[in-house]
Every structure is written in C-alpha cells, then in structure tokens.
Design a protein that fits this description.
By secondary structure, the chain is mainly beta. Helix content is 0%, strand content 47%. Strands 10, 12, 15, 16, 17, 18, 20 and 21 form an eight-stranded mixed beta sheet that branches. Strands 1, 3, 4, 6 and 9 form a five-stranded antiparallel beta sheet that branches. A four-stranded antiparallel beta sheet has the order 5-2-7-8, with no helix packed on it. Strand 16 and strand 17 form a beta hairpin. The protein is elongated.
Length: 284
C-alpha cells in the first residue's frame, strides 16, 4: 500500500539566526578562568578536564585544561586556566593516567574571577570522586559530598610498639576513616597476671568508646585478638584466636584513631604491629 504525499504540505525546519537565547547559563568574561582543585591519596595519576566553549565570535572550541597532577598526601592543589570570553557549554573530568579507586581522588571544578592566589571562586560546577572508570560531567552531575557512598577500602599494617607499650594508630591528615576490622597479636611475658585487651576509639584526644575483648590471656602465651563489624560479642575461633564486635558507622576524622588499653599489662608484654582495614574518604 502506498500513501500519496502532497508536496505543498511538507514543511522544512528553520532556525533563528538573530537574537538567539544563550546556549548556556555559564557566561565567562576575560577576567574569569576555569579551575580544578584535587585532594588525592593515589600515586602516579594525572587528571584531565576537557571542555566545550563557545567564543563570542561564534566559534566552538573543544579544549583540554593543562594537565593536572594531584598531590599524593591528600592536600589540595589547583590548576587555573583562562578560556577567554564566551559560554562554557560542557565539561568533563577523568583520569589522564594512572589508577585511582573511589575514595582516593576528590575534585572540585568551577569558575573563578582572576588567576592569582587572590582569585574569587564564584561558581562550582562539578564536585566528587574521579577514578578508573569514574568520571564527572557538566551539565548533569550533582555536587557530591566527600563521605557520600562508598569509600576506599584500605588494608593497613600499623606501627609495632615497644614491649610494655600499647598500640596507638592515628588517622592521617586529610582523611576520614570508618574502622571495619582490627587484628592484634599479644605475646605475654612470664610475669603472672591475667591480661585483657581493650580497643579504645579516640576522638579529639578523648576516648569515646572502649570495646573490651571477652577473652583473657595468662603468662607466657601468644594470642590473637580480632574486632570486626557485624560480629557478636564473643566468638571463639580457635584456642589462640578470638573475635568480637565493633560499633557500626564509627567515623574517625584526621587526628582521631584507636588504641589498645590492656588490663594488667606487664612491662615485658609485647604487641606486634596491628593489621586493620578501614573505609577511607577524602576530607578536604
């Protein structure tokens, strides 16, 4: 079956060439610049910001900001680049090289007036984590806060204290930790005493919670003690290794941490370096 088409009824589409509404609400003057600030703990990465920019002469530019290399100690570093006068149409952020997981590399992208240290930031367009296959784009993305979603799961080997000294671990600058597991080994001296390890969670220099281990230890023994999220008060795994629970969603900021406080500890009692896992977030 064929349907006849009357040519006089077919209409083409036309576009207005004058007094056209702006294609974007982000107008940049010659005094404005696009910037990216990063806070990062990954090693060996670079970040790229690519953008589409409509100049005042009507030419659309697809460009790349100067390569941005983050610090690796979670401190902030900024790259600023003026684009000229016109409308920013779109922008995206992704890794240029290296590998980073969610929770390691947090960025903010926006527009500032001026390029010197006294620049005035007047608009943030992207904010959140970037990493391997984790990108940001504008328009479209919302501004993500550092502790939203999942963080970076780290396995840490702590500091080995001297005999008779308790374990003490501190959250590094620029990070927030959610403690998930702790494993410590204690070798008791020949001095007769009944030891009981306690795990202390410390915040702002004060102990906010003590989690005593249900098991105790006599002289001349080596025992392993575990604390973990989701576990019951006491679970005996073997004669030499036991596990107990941790509070859920206990977040520790930079300078906070955890330590042991052992009942009846003796001068010759020796803790090995603790092993623990945390969910880590960047905290700008």
């Amino acid at each position: 079956m064929q349907i006849a088409e009357r040519s006089e009824e077919v209409q083409g589409i036309t576009f207005q060439n004058e007094r056209v509404a702006p294609p974007s609400d982000l107008y940049m003057t010659r005094m404005d610049a696009l910037f990216i600030t990063s806070y990062n703990s990954a090693v060996g990465i670079t970040i790229q910001v690519r953008y589409t920019f409509l100049r005042v002469d009507g030419v659309v530019i697809v460009g790349v900001l100067d390569t941005h290399t983050p610090n690796t100690d979670r401190s902030g570093v900024t790259t600023v680049q003026p684009l000229g006068e016109g409308y920013l149409l779109s922008a995206c952020v992704f890794l240029g090289s290296g590998t980073s997981r969610r929770g390691q590399t947090y960025v903010q992208v926006g527009v500032a007036r001026g390029v010197a240290a006294a620049r005035l930031v007047h608009r943030i367009i992207m904010q959140g984590y970037v990493g391997t296959a984790i990108n940001l784009a504008w328009p479209g993305n919302r501004l993500e806060q550092p502790r939203e979603g999942s963080g970076y799961t780290r396995a840490v080997t702590g500091t080995n204290p001297a005999p008779g000294v308790e374990i003490n671990e501190v959250v590094p600058t620029g990070a927030t930790w959610r403690l998930t597991t702790v494993r410590v080994a204690l070798t008791s001296s020949a001095t007769v005493a009944t030891r009981r390890p306690l795990l202390q969670l410390n915040r702002a220099g004060a102990t906010v919670l003590s989690v005593p281990h249900p098991q105790t230890q006599l002289a001349s023994l080596t025992r392993i003690y575990n604390w973990a999220l989701g576990m019951a008060l006491a679970v005996t795994v073997t004669t030499d290794s036991n596990i107990t629970g941790l509070p859920i969603d206990m977040y520790l900021a930079a300078g906070d941490g955890f330590s042991t406080a052992t009942e009846a500890i003796q001068a010759g009692d020796d803790y090995a370096a603790p092993s623990y896992s945390v969910e880590e977030y960047i905290e700008p």
